[in-house]
C-alpha cells in the first residue's frame, strides 16, 4: 500500500502500480488482505439507496469504517483522505456497498451509528506527503529504540505508523509490565517534532505487523490472512496427541501456534466416537488402563495395572464391547484374545497390501557394486563350466 509507483489520475483517483509493489499491493489491492465483494453484481430493490459506508485499509492491514457523506461514488482501490484526530489520514478503499454492513456487524459496529467520514479522494499532494512520511518510519523507529534504551525502559518498539498528513506518529510497542513513558514522549516530541501516540500491542499482533515465514515454509497466517486472534491453550495439543514440546508448539511470537486451532474441531468430532481415556477395562486377568490412543486408526492401547510395560492394541469397538460385557457382569478372560485379532488384521495387510513392492521407496537403491560382483561371479562360473 502506497509504494513509490503510486500516482493520481485526472479525476483524483489513484493510478496504482499494477501490483508490482512489495508492500502487499496498493491500489490494485491484490495483497494478502484483499476482500472479494460477492454482492457487487447484485442489484438493490427498487427505491433502496446504496449504503454510504465504506471500509478503508491502512498500513499493515489496519482497517476502519467511514461514511461517504459527499457521495463520491467510491470504488475498491481508490485512495482517500479520511477524518482523523487531528487532521486527516490517507488509506485505500477495501470494500464498498452492502457487504460493508456485514463486516460492521461482524465487528460489533452499528451500521447506522455516527462514524468518521471521508473528506475527499486523495490528491497528488496528499499522496506525496503520505509517501514521504512512510519513508521516514523505519529510521524513526531505530532512533526511538535508542532513546528507550537510554532511558532504561523495558519495552520493545516494533513499528511506527505516520498519519496520512504527517501530523501524528503512532509507536507500537510490547512490554511485559506497565511502562511509565511520560519522559519518553517528551524525548520523542523534541526529537521528531510531531504529535506522539503510544499504543501497546500483544505479541501476536507484533508478529502480524512484522511478518515472516513459518516452519511450514509459508508466510505467517497472522500476517497474510488472519485478522481475529483467538486464544490457544495446551488442551488443543493434547487433543491432537502432540508432544508438549515448547520449541515445536510455539511460533515466532513466543506464544502457542494459532494453527493448533485449525484442525481442533475435526479431532473433537473424531473423539466423540472414542471411549473416555480414563476408562478402566475389567478382565479376569486384571484391570487394564488406557496408555495411548490413535485417532486416525481408531485404536487404543491398554496395559494391565500389574504389568504396565506390556501394551495391548484394541479397536474402539472392542473396547466398547468389553465395557458393555462388564456392565452385564460378563467379564472377559483377557485382552490378549482381542489384541490377537488386531495383530492378524495387521499381518494380512502387510502380506497383501504391497504385492509388487510399489510402496517401497528403497527398492531401486541397491548399490551398483553388488551388481558388478554378481556379474563377475556368473562369468567365472561360466568359464569353469567350459
Secondary structure elements and pairings:
Layout: E1 53-57, E2 63-67, E3 79-83, E4 88-96, H1 99-106, E5 118-121, H2 124-150, E6 156-162, E7 168-174, H3 182-192, E8 195-200, H4 203-210, H5 221-224, H6 234-239, H7 246-249, H8 264-271, E9 280-283, E10 286-294, E11 299-304, E12 312-315, H9 316-327, H10 336-352, H11 368-385
Parallel strand pairs: 7-8
Antiparallel strand pairs: 1-2, 1-4, 3-4, 3-5, 6-7, 9-10, 10-11, 11-12
Helix pairs in contact: 2-3
Proportion of β residues? 15-25%
**How many angstroms separate the termini?**
84 Å
Low-confidence spans: 1-30
Radius of gyration, taken over Cα atoms and rounded to an integer in Å: 32 Å
Number of strands: 12
Please give the order of strands in the largest beta sheet. Answer: 2-1-4-3-5
Q: Biggest sheet, open or closed, and with what strands and sense?
A: 5 strands, antiparallel
Shape: elongated
Q: What is the typical, i.e. mean, pLDDT?
A: 83
**Structural class category:** alpha+beta
Walk me through the structure.
By secondary structure, the chain is an alpha+beta fold. About 30% of the residues lie in helices and about 20% in strands. A 5-stranded antiparallel beta sheet has the order 2-1-4-3-5. Strands 9-10-11-12 form a 4-stranded antiparallel beta sheet. It has a 3-stranded mixed beta sheet with strand order 6-7-8, sandwiched between helices. Strand 9 and strand 10 form a beta hairpin. About 20% of the residues are buried. The N terminus is likely disordered.
Amino acid at each position: 500500500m502506497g509504494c513509490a509507483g503510486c500516482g493520481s489520475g485526472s479525476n483524483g483517483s489513484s493510478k496504482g502500480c499494477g501490483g508490482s509493489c512489495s508492500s502487499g499491493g496498493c491500489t490494485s489491492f491484490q495483497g494478502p488482505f484483499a476482500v472479494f465483494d460477492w454482492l457487487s453484481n447484485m442489484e438493490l430493490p427498487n427505491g433502496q439507496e446504496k449504503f454510504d459506508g465504506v471500509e478503508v485499509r491502512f498500513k499493515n492491514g489496519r482497517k476502519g469504517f467511514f461514511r461517504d457523506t459527499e457521495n463520491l461514488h467510491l470504488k475498491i482501490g481508490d485512495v482517500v483522505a479520511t477524518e482523523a484526530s487531528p487532521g486527516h489520514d490517507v488509506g485505500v478503499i477495501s470494500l464498498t456497498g452492502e457487504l460493508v454492513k456485514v463486516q460492521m456487524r461482524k465487528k460489533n459496529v452499528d451500521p447506522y451509528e455516527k462514524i468518521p467520514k471521508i473528506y475527499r479522494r486523495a490528491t497528488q499532494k496528499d499522496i506525496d506527503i503520505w509517501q514521504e512520511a512512510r519513508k521516514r518510519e523505519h529510521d524513526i523507529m531505530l532512533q526511538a529504540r535508542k532513546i528507550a534504551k537510554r532511558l532504561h525502559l523495558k519495552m520493545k518498539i516494533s513499528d511506527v505508523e505516520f498519519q496520512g498528513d504527517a501530523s501524528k506518529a503512532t509507536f507500537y510497542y510490547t512490554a511485559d509490565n506497565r511502562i511509565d513513558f511520560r519522559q519518553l514522549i517528551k524525548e520523542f516530541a523534541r526529537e521528531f517534532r510531531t504529535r506522539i501516540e503510544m499504543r501497546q500491542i500483544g505479541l501476536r499482533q507484533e508478529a502480524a505487523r512484522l511478518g515472516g515465514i513459518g516452519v511450514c515454509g509459508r508466510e505467517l497466517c497472522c500476517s497474510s490472512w488472519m485478522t481475529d486472534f483467538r486464544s490457544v491453550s495446551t488442551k488443543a495439543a493434547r487433543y491432537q496427541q502432540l508432544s508438549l514440546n515448547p520449541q515445536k508448539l510455539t511460533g515466532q511470537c513466543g506464544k502457542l501456534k494459532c494453527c493448533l486451532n485449525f484442525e481442533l474441531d475435526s479431532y473433537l468430532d473424531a473423539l466423540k466416537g472414542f471411549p473416555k481415556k480414563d476408562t478402566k477395562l475389567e478382565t479376569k486377568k486384571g484391570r487394564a488402563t488406557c496408555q495411548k490412543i490413535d485417532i486416525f486408526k481408531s485404536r487404543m492401547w491398554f496395559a494391565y495395572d500389574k504389568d504396565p510395560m506390556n501394551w495391548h492394541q484394541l479397536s474402539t469397538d472392542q473396547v466398547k464391547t468389553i465395557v458393555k460385557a462388564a456392565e452385564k457382569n460378563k467379564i472377559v478372560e483377557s485382552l490378549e484374545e482381542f489384541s490377537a485379532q488386531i495383530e492378524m488384521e495387521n499381518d494380512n495387510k502387510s502380506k497383501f497390501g504391497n504385492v509388487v513392492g510399489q510402496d517401497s521407496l528403497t527398492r531401486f537403491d541397491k548399490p551398483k557394486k553388488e551388481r558388478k560382483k554378481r556379474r563377475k561371479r556368473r562369468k567365472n562360473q561360466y568359464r569353469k563350466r567350459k
